Prior knowledge:
Blueprint: H1 2-12, H2 20-39, H3 42-60, H4 64-93, E1 98-102, E2 109-113, E3 118-122, E4 129-133
Antiparallel strand pairs: 1-2, 3-4
Helix pairs in contact: 2-3
Amino acid sequence: MNNFKTKFIRFMYGRYGIDQLYGALFAAWCVIAVINCFVNSIILSILGTVLAVWMIWRTLSRNIQKRRAENEKFLILWKPVKSWLVFQRDRFRDRKTARYRKCSHCRAIVKLPVKKGKHTVVCPRCKGRFDVRI
């Protein structure tokens, strides 16, 4: 076992390995594979194979600068999506204890406790006052 590990480490030396884009491609491949179990489509099979080959090719690539640049571009596109998903998760988690409203001045989202009625709120970002109904 130790001999295989040493040979694998020696083989991977100077290669790119895995990163966040690899993780996203792997998740997409898993979703496509599960969907394809029920649908059994040749198009999904080809798409899954292309994703798998792309993942392996990126992992074994020796052009580290290009792979790093690809990952940076992916992260720039992924950041707003991840922020939105985290916000939706938090909003669902707090659905019984808090409400989220936008500030009418700076459009920032303000988390408010659930207190029925009309309230005047001070925005923590711009210090503007606005009225809300909860």
